[in-house]
Structures are given as C-alpha cells and as structure tokens.
Amino acid sequence: MSWKLDETVQTSAAMVAAGRFGSGPALVLAHGWPWSSFSWHRIIPDLARRYRVHWYDMPGYGRSDKGAQQRTSLDVQGQVFAEMVEHWALERPIVVAHDMGGATTLRAHLLHGCDFERYVLMNVVAMRPWGSAFFDHVGRHVDAFLELPPHIHKAVVEAYIKGAIVNDIDSGDFERLVEPWLSEEGRGSFYRQFAQADEKYTAEIEPAFGNVRCPVKIIWGEDDPWIPLERGKALHALIPQASFETLPGVGHLPQIEAPDLVVKRLNAFLSRRCPNIS
User: Fold this and answer.
1) Structural domains of the chain, ranges and CATH numbers in brackets
2) Mean of the per-residue pLDDT values for the chain?
3) Which residue of 63, 134, 191, 253 pairs with 17 in a disulfide if CB–CB is 3.0 to 4.6 A?
4) pLDDT of amino acid 185
5) What per-residue string of b and e applies to 68-101 under the rule 16 or more CB within 10 Å gives b?
6) How confident is the model at residue 277 (pLDDT cuts 50, 70, 90)?
7) CA 192 to CA 110: how far, in whole Å?
C-alpha cells in the first residue's frame, strides 16, 4: 500500500503522524472530519505517478496525538497545516482538501501566508452554517456520550460514518475509517471534536474567499447527505475565479466512493494550463 504513516512531526498542537510518496511537483492532501489520511489511500497510488504526495493525520485524528486536554478546532488545524508545509519545505504545493480540510487549508492560505500552486476543494466545510442537529446535540452533551459502553459507542461511530456515504465501499476501508475512534483516547477525541467545533473560525475567513491567490477547482459529490450540493454552489459564488464540477451519484466521500473518477477530475485540472493569479 502506498499510503503509510512512517513519519512523526512535532507541531505546536501535538505530535502528528505523516507520510509521503511519489516523485514530481509537491501535492498535499488535507483530510476532514471524522476521517484521517487513510481516506486518501485509494487515490494516492495514481497521484504518486505524477506528484510527490504528502499527507498527515490532523491532531486529534487517526494515528496522531489525541490528548485529553488537546485543542483540535479549526484555528489550530490551520496553523498546523502551515507548520507541516514549512516542515516539508514546500514553497507552493498543490493542495487537495476535503470536508474540514477545506476550512483548515483556507485558513492556512488566507491567514498564515501559505501559497498554493493549485487548489482543489472537494465537498468541503468552508462557510456557515455547518454541522447538524445531531452535531450540535453531541457538542452540548459530550460528558454523557463519553459514558457510553464501548459497543454502543462503536455503533454510534459506524452509523455516523455510514450517514456520509451513498455508495457501497470496501468493508476493510469502512473498518479502517472507524478504527481510530474505538480506543479509549480515540473515543474521547471523537466527542471532543463536536464540542470544539465553532463557526467563528469559518466566519473569520469567509469575507476573504475572493482573495484566494491561485487557480481553484471545486468538486462536489452531487448526492452528499452531509453538505448538500447547494452549499457547493454557494461556495463557488464566493470564489468566482474557481471552476466547479459535480460528481453524479457520489456522496460525501468521493475519494473512497469513486476514486477513479476523482483521479480523472484531478488530473484534468492539474494538467490544464491556468493563468497566474496573485
């Protein structure tokens, strides 16, 4: 498997697990909630034929640290993304972001001075409102959810993840998506994500979306049950220089649900000549 986590990097927030593979121009993958860098494993081999692909598990996710007092909100994640780009000594990487990886990388770009060569936003959290009634409920009652018996907690995580996906996926992939949240520290981190989610961290950058300094492609699974297509169109309206394309019959996790289609769309955008934007 091309995806692996064979690096550890100490960031201002926590120790994070990371990996890289391939050769060519630098490309960084930014996962979202409640995923990890494993969510990219089906498209990494194809991308690595053309690019030096970099990835990491965000603090509080996957195999990265999940401390009980750890902050993992979007302001922290944006700072950590900028630190990882600096750690890898990347000047203008291509960036592909999914879910809350969108807000994370937008903060790194707009607030922390990270320049990107090209930028893909796929079914991203980027603008208010976001979350759901269940999301808000868990955030208000974290202590109660932390007391759930392990088998009930596992059922919650499985049901939550299934709610994002509209296509059948490999059972092994599903198990690997769930697994990081089943340990004692994983369970605590899972529910703390709900409590620390705050729309102020997207409100802070929304007025600057028109100032993105590189070519942008927005890709959206048309049948996303978490972030409807209308939200993708609204984001496109705020980034008028972006191109916009949908993925028919695909839900919230395109890189797992339709990896070949995602690679095809990424390669088409990344190989196209684009005007310089600064």
Assistant:
1) 7-132+199-271 (3.40.50.1820)
2) 96
3) 63
4) 96
5) eebebbbbbbbbbbbbbbebbebeebbbbbbbbb
6) low
7) 26
